[in-house]
């Protein structure tokens, strides 16, 4: 997700914040059922749980290798955590729609519309309301999954969230989740997976959220911490999806996206 333009703050003034989201009954039930099953069967190696603050506003900023990442983090986290997912996961009908909706609700997902511009900022505002309710929120600064295993440059939405809400950022390094559930796989397989929680980062020293320089510096610090935990090869570029149209090509080449 990304916002086109120079200043995220310019966009937030025109978009009303979403209602605060709190984990419901389905989430607590899913967490209590899924956690022992997943950790017992797949046996992920988890380190640094003591680094996660037990309360207050916390952003889990993680590398992104697989769909299963959004299950691995909530299952291994010592506290409840929420993240954003496509709204289509929550709007299906019939039995299949109910199963999908229940599953994503059980792992802490919050449905949002994906896209650029105001849609992207609205998604970040949803994350903001989650944090302002003193909850934990997970985000992938790369924006989308890495298909080649490299760690791409971080988008500045994570810094905007941290600087706007005052949340601490806990870097997360995932290893092996791409082997557990490669792109196109329908079910996870057993593989050596590790989830490492790093020491919390206070990015307030970099400046205010409206400063592009502050957002960039804060994001780079966060990505450096993720790299130390994940051990991935660095890609000196953004993880851009191929442009689907001429308009998208122009946006990528000319408009200098804010890269959320």
Automatic annotation (TrEMBL):
GO terms for molecular function: 1-acylglycerol-3-phosphate O-acyltransferase activity. It holds the Pfam family Acyltransferase. One of its GO terms (biological process) is phosphatidic acid biosynthetic process. Residues 58-177 form the Phospholipid/glycerol acyltransferase domain. GO terms for cellular component: plasma membrane. It comes from the Bacteria. Keywords: Acyltransferase, Transferase. This is 1-acyl-sn-glycerol-3-phosphate acyltransferase. It comes from Paramicrobacterium humi.
